[in-house]
Please model this.
Amino acid sequence: MLEKLETKLPGALQKRGTALAVAAGLALVSVFGIGGLKLRSARGPVADVYYDRMETELDARADVGHNLLVLAAKLPGGEDAAGKAELEKALENWEASQQKGPSAKSLADLELEETVNKLGESLAKPAEEAGKTDLLNRQLAEFESHGNVFGHELEAYNEQAKAYNDRLHSFPAMLIRLIWGIQEVDLCV
Model:
């Protein structure tokens, strides 16, 4: 049956060398074309873990930081509370990290956590005097809750990201990666 098909091919393709070159070309297109699509599509689920779940928690923590600054402004002596200036700077750094990816945002969150805790401690007495202890405690509990969810997701994300990055360094994926311009996934701290 193949003999009949072979006789219908153009003359150049009936030569063994040409047929081998075409077969090799098709194999390369298959490996590098389909392989590139597979690598690129494998990145999506890893990135989704970060962008669909973790980033939301980090954004919520920054929102709580802003809420604490508003609360500090409303409390007697809150404007001068220890940690207020540091939290303002941490929130500026947080905003600057927005375009830099998961690693930069998780580092900015560590700074945010330190400054939120410091301001929370220094606002305890003014909040008590103003009858706003419950409000302060709710904000701090919300901040911690979002941090716990982020921490839970962080481990799973980093495992998936590391597995994906390791895959990019295996053969033939490392060649496909270079051809397609596929980048590693950022790990979080």
User: Anything to note?
Assistant: The CA atoms of residues 57 and 149 lie 7 Å apart.
